[in-house]
Design a protein that fits this description.
The structure is a homotetramer of 333-residue chains. By secondary structure, the first copy, chain A, is of the alpha/beta class. Helices cover 38% and strands 25% of the residues of chain A. In chain A, strands 12-11-7-10-9-8-15 form a seven-stranded mixed sheet. The longest helix of chain A has 20 residues, at 305-324.
């Protein structure tokens, strides 16, 4: 019979709760302890979860073999290092850190401790995008020429969030950079980014942008382009197309229903699922299954620390490209 | 070089003008004379068309080899007979007549005179429905099990029109009956029709209906079902599905553009083309090409007088079925 | 805090397991005991479920307040009666029985014991069809004129299954009959069914059909039509359209992904979800939540024993209509 | 009554014939003379067209008020100048010339002669793209943020064609550059182009590319991106999206039919119309109507010589950007 995998978590906010709900439904997995200074007691009690306000209690628990880091981004690198030093395997939400040197320190600690680290690039586990990846890797669309990603958020972030986010490229486009690497199976050589604060002047005043088009040259010779917006009034717009010598495959938006209403106003179908938690619901579940499977099989998870580092380096190059108004080569880790 | 085909027309109203515009663009075809008591002089002059108020002038013209009958329905049978007696080939809009005996008289005259007669079941020449027919006849969908037709008009007819129309089955559904025969390549054995005046009480008071569902049993064992409405607020709804042992093929509505608008209100595409003249534009052109080709090749047109008769007999059976509340066998011509 | 609802189940086959998996994820619900003569021990142990081979153990357990009947159809009526006599509330998969008198006996027992009974018409809880119901009941599509249901199974049933199924109308179309009642909020007055064994001769030899078109007249004046097939080679085809004075709404098939592949072969999207367990996954979860909510709120469930009876009466009328070749009035319970 | 507009044409190849067929159907327009050294006599005779092998005969004809230039691109500038010097209004297919100075000479001759000049950017008259333009100009999509154009040809050009084409940006993308200007109502300030010969090595050896992604910064602050391919195995792919503060509108591909085939292989719809003559059929008709209307109303046509010049300047900037590997500012005419 399958051995029980025992987990602990740091952080029980929105994303921590989401993952924990998924974990509670996995056979052979136990969430032993969750640390959060402001834990939602009612939620935890309803699920019979043990809680603490002290992360140290999680790190110190001998039974816990892996720590899930769902805390604020600024704490990720420190907590990865502490977890590694305590011999725990680690699942950490993106980003590891905004500073590549800090990321490298965290990865060094992981390497030294010989623990596993999975980074929360959940979109790699979305069934739509997995289908695209399969179409590329199996040769179904032939030799890859282009990847096109549209990623638009449903609503502007708060200015406070913007100020500590590291900027749109490191906060939002980083998912798309990782997706380009995932879909292509190749690396990004050079980035050219054009962007502006078109939607909200205060975002510009805070030194950030809300709209961008980013072109990427890949080492396999293919091109990729990402168009981003911080606000589409109709909701969360997440579309990808891969195009190659045998054809193209597009992943369209998911919608609440498949109904089609035909009235005097027109033929109307549903808007895309509004929020990333709904849109990527399935991917969150599958990525955690992957983490648990990697622990069981004593192998590296499908998406590791190096992926967190490289996406950050692409994001830094994108930002630099936009600021300098010229293409920038990506530091290859 | 192709010999010139010389035509004359009786009737230059909406449908007569439409066909004439198409004919004017056909190489090797000449519209020599058009008869209409209320002819639109400006329109005719702009196209250098010779006109008369007297149908007899068309029938009597020795050069005219075929007469196109675009007059009011009540005159069709008489004019077919006169045309045949004058040795003219004939294109006649549906219906030949509402009374099967009168239709048979007209067809007898055609047979006796050994002239060609094509009936205006234009939908047989619509590219969408031709594709369905091909999918059935080529075996692409395998053995045929079911045909499903949705036919809804965009707006109610006037009560005056209703009163002389012969009723919805003979006026509107007759096209769908012909389509079932065309798509299946089979005959209708039995009809069961359920219908009512749901939309407009005055249509009911005039003895007619505005909504119906009609089930047909075909001689090849397949089933067909037609749902009709005299008024869909969103426009002209013309969809067909054929289903067989190897799959299904649907013909969806045609729209003015392929644009997709995504706003806070939803994802919106175009309503169907609103009017039969727009929706079936291409079919009107192709059916007239077929008529001219049949004249040139001295062969029977693809859709003849017998098709007009049989559809009428199905319509009569449908009406009787609805009134008696039971299925009715179709008189096979 | 919410009191815990304690359940027991009779039957732990495919559908019993499915419901139980859902129940295990519901807060405040406990599956205390499952009875099945051939229980899958590994499955039960993995979920820490208490099991027995004796249904009586479930009926006799004082703590269990409701019994879920997932046993073979032929046992349903007896088990409903036993459960009622033991004062248990009841969730029972459809059908209650094939014989209306037997159904009435079961409902009498339920009424006498004053227990709640919910019948497993899960499709009422499907998000697509709920959206259609809302469009009808809210007046969004105006006054209802027509309901059109397409229901095709992906693969033929075995002849053994056919022989005990009660025939296609009672086994398969019964869901569609219930759907017509649910969507319209009205009753079926009269049925006309045309059907045949077109796909598999042996189904015909067993006295059943595999293809049908059924027309229904409703008490509110609307019409409904259902087209069924026991086998669509492309999978499970479940589409519905409601049409009224303000427009139409269609529920299209659900698919595994939203990807669109464009190759030299054409523009290709996914086939419908193949199997009813996948297609109606969400509805099974929601219907069980409804049952538990009804228990908690001490109210009747949204779909009760009478709905099981009426759908059966419509099915019987449909079968009789097909055999007699004429429309048949439905016995109104 | 409308006065007759008398036209002459230089060139009666594929595009010359297409336009002439459209002109023959326009009321009040006469094609008096067509010049082509290798004229298709059968085609001309079937349409009763007067022909000559000498362009001079067209330029010299006093009755001809406008000359349509359908000759090889290398002759365009010379023929525009000659036509202008002869006082003829001019319709000329794109490009005027590949060299901006040569274009300026031609435009100077047009200005000096005070004749009208329309350039054949037919896509401005495509109903799909007109709908997008309307959505932008009416404010329907709000303030414009992004324009995204996908333009893929169905098959590689011959190497001989490639060598004299001016390169992909001037030959193919030039239409997309004009479309960005048309849709945005704004000018292009800066271009960054990434491209390569990915599909066919010999195109690279000839100094050209077959795949590109081009980013454009507009004077109104919006961004545009164009992805091009010289070969999509599935046909001619022409999609555009405009995105703004109130939503997005996409123009999807047009297809031969709207049929949907559902088989064991999947749900299959038509590939895009394969060839630009079919895809843009309607736009060719409407652009010629615009030219004739401009002549009648003695006004400038909707798309003039300056549009031909500016698109060429953008194309030159794109080529330079790709070669230098950095963004290039566009010479503003």
């Amino acid at each position: 019979m399958m051995r029980t995998v025992i987990l602990g978590a740091i952080g029980a906010g929105r994303i921590g709760k989401l993952h924990t709900e998924n974990i509670l439904q996995m056979p052979g997995v136990r969430m032993k302890l969750m640390a959060d200074p402001y834990i939602d007691e009612t939620w935890a009690r309803g699920r019979s979860l043990a809680v603490t306000t002290e992360p140290e209690a999680v790190f110190a628990d001998k039974e816990i073999e892996a720590v899930l880091i769902f805390s604020p981004s600024t704490l990720h690198a420190d907590q990865i290092i502490t977890a590694a030093e305590n011999g725990k395997h680690i699942f950490c939400e993106k980003p590891i850190a905004l500073d590549p040197d800090r990321i490298r320190q965290a990865l060094d600690a992981v390497a030294k401790a010989k623990v596993k680290l999975q980074i929360g690039f959940n979109r790699r586990f979305d069934p739509e995008f997995c289908r695209l990846r399969e179409a590329v890797s199996s040769g179904e669309i032939g030799r890859l020429y282009q990847i096109k990603i549209t990623a638009r958020d449903p609503a502007l972030p708060s200015i406070d969030y913007v100020k500590t986010s590291g900027g749109m490229f490191l906060d939002m486009t980083i998912h798309d950079f990782d997706m380009v690497r995932y879909l292509s199976g190749s690396e990004v050589e050079e980035v050219f980014a054009a962007g502006a604060a078109m939607i909200d002047r205060t975002i510009g005043e805070a030194g950030d942008i809300d709209t961008a088009i980013t072109t990427l040259k890949l080492t396999n010779g293919a091109l990729a382009v990402i168009d981003n917006s911080r606000q589409a009034v109709y909701g969360y717009d997440q579309r990808i197309e891969v195009f190659g010598s045998k054809g193209s495959m597009q992943a369209c938006n998911r919608t609440p229903t498949r109904t089609v209403s035909t009235t005097a106003e027109g033929v109307i179908t549903d808007k895309p699922l509004y929020f990333f938690l709904e849109r990527y619901q399935e991917s969150f579940r599958v990525e955690m299954e992957e983490f648990v499977a990697a622990l069981r099989e004593k192998r590296d998870p499908a998406v590791g620390g190096i992926d967190g580092l490289i996406s950050t380096l692409i994001g830094i190059a994108a930002k630099e490209s936009m600021e300098r108004g010229e293409p920038v080569r990506v530091n290859q880790g």
